[in-house]
Amino acid sequence: MAVEKHTHVYKVVGDCEINADAYRARGRGLKPAVVWIHGGALIGGHRENIRPDQAELYLNSGFALISIDYRLAPETKLAAIIEDLVDAFAWVRKEGPQLVRADPRRIGVVGHSAGAYLTLTAGFRVNPRPQALVSFYGYGDIAAPWYSRPDPFYNQRPRVSKEQAFGSVGNKPISHDGGAGNRFLFYLYCRQRGLWPKEVAGLDPDRQPAAFDPLCPLRNVTKEYPPTMLLHGDLDTDVPYQQSVAMAEALGRTGVEHEFVTMRGRGHGFDGVGLQDREVANAFDRAIGFLKHHLAK
After folding, report:
1. Considering its fold, how many domains does the chain have in total?
2. Cα 18 from chain centre
3. Cα within 13 Å of Cα(106), Cβ side
4. Other C-beta atoms within 10 Å of 91: how many?
5. What is the CATH number of the domain that holds 69?
6. I want to staple 84 with a disulfide (CB 3.0 to 4.6 A). Which of 59, 70, 120, 223 is the partner?
7. In 24-69, where do the E strands start and end?
């Protein structure tokens, strides 16, 4: 089925244009909107990483769909990346009704991995708050040992030197990695040495622990936090399953409506096998149902 998609610049910082792909909802009238946020450790990736079968699923389910870029680290630090997140939602609320028939009063967020981290961050940094969040293998604490200490899994790979790592990234802000896979070397370098918080946030979690308070969703769950669905594979070797467990516990303690879907025997990026996989399809059916329920008029 043909999909109507248009690319728009939602923000410009210096010479860096930051884009969003807007997929028009089918049918007439304003539709609930899904803002989709790509992963890539905040270091790589782009808005076009959304799988076509997933994009079509959201559209066929009656949602307007907006997939956003944001500036990437380490050229841009996390505080500014979150500024892009906030500005993207302001743009969606202003321009969405005309561009894609998106109802500015009914916005849900779906993100994967680092995009799920930004999804969870939208739950307390975006104002007005989205009506629902769906986090695929996301995380709520970026200062925890899994990110701030050398990672055993990634240290099984050949050691990446500092020269290799910084040679794979640049000096000027970018918001789209152009599909260049060599930026993964920088991520690998960070994980092998436990430097992700320092290189991406520009802060030291040991010396400046309080500076991470406004950057960690886990530390900002209140009764005003939006309804949230968490989906995570219990064999994830990139983002620990425990990250979603901790978020679910915080949501439960605070009384926030939430669902936690454990994908048994699945790893990071479990949806990459496609919707023809029955368990993955069932997980997406639950996510669609969750969004429909919370974005209903």
Report:
1. 1
2. 16
3. 19
4. 19
5. 3.40.50.1820
6. 70
7. 31-37, 64-68
Q: What is the Cα 172 distance to its own chain's centre?
A: 23
CA distance 196 to 27: 44
pTM of structure? 0.97
Look at residues 65, 122, 44 and name the one whose alpha carbon lies nearest to residue 89.
122
| 134-165 core/surface letters (b: 16 or more CB in 10 A; e: else) | bbbbbbbbbbbebbbeebeebeeeeebeeeeb
pLDDT in tens, the chain (297 residues): 456 899 999 999 999 999 999 998 777 789 999 999 999 999 999 999 999 999 999 999 999 999 999 999 999 999 999 999 999 999 999 999 999 999 999 999 999 999 999 999 999 999 999 999 999 999 999 999 999 999 999 999 999 999 999 999 999 999 998 765 689 999 999 999 999 999 999 999 999 999 999 999 999 999 999 999 999 999 999 999 999 999 999 999 999 999 999 999 999 999 999 999 999 999 999 999 999 999 997
* In-domain check, residue 187: no
User: Rounded to a whole number, what is the distance in angstroms from the first to the last CA of the chain?
Assistant: 27
158 inside domain: no
Task: Say if CB 203 and CB 235 are below 8 A apart.
Answer: no
DSSP code, position 53: H
- Distance, in Å, from the CA atom of 290 to the CA atom of 285, rounded to the nearest integer, reads 9
Residue 176, domain member (yes or no):
no
CA dist., res. 148 & res. 203, Å (int): 11
DSSP characters for 155-200?
A: GGSPPPPHHHHHHTS-SS--S--TT-GGGHHHHHHHHHHT-HIIII
For residue 244 the two structure tokens come to 């979603």
Structural domain range at position 135? 5-141+213-294
User: Strand, helix or coil at 105?
Assistant: strand
